[in-house]
Structures are given as C-alpha cells and as structure tokens.
Design goal:
Number of strands: 0
Shape: elongated
Order of helices and strands: HH
Distance between the termini: 114 Å
Strand content: under 5%
Radius of gyration: 36 Å
Largest sheet: none
C-alpha cells in the first residue's frame, strides 16, 4: 500500500513537471491593426477634448476675474455714495 501511494505520488510529480514545461500560447486579436487605428483616433479625440477643456477653463478664469473686479468696483461705489 505504501509502495502504491509512493508510485502514485511519483506519477503526479511527473504530470506536474510535464505541465510546467509546456509553454502557454497567447493569441493576439485578429484585427490588431484595426484596434491600433481605433486607439490612435481615440487618443486624438482625447487631445481635442483636453484642448477644449483648457479653453473653457481659461474663459471661466477670465469671467471670474471680471466678476471679482465688478464686485470691488460696486463696493467702492457704495462706499463713496455712503460718504457723500
């Protein structure tokens, strides 16, 4: 019985060794060029959106500065009218 268990263990080790030696085959997608073209288009689209976001952010900053300037001018005008 011990010999049989030892023989089974040896067989299992042999199977594991064979499996370890087998190399894994990885298949690439069939249309790799199509995927690369799509990725390039998406990257270009992202660049366009980033430029639009930067432009909008600049306009927002300008509008906020103009608003703050208006607030200051109104406060100055209010203070002058109270003194008069």
């Amino acid at each position: 019985m011990a010999e049989e268990a030892l023989e089974n263990l040896t067989k299992e080790e042999d199977v594991l060794a064979e499996e370890a030696q087998e190399t894994e085959v990885v298949e690439l997608p069939h249309n790799i060029q199509r995927l690369q073209n799509k990725q390039a288009r998406l990257n270009q689209e992202i660049s366009v959106y980033q430029a639009q976001i930067a432009e909008i952010a600049e306009k927002l900053e300008t509008a906020q500065l103009a608003f703050q300037q208006c607030v200051v001018l109104m406060q100055v005008e209010e203070a002058q009218s109270e003194q008069a």
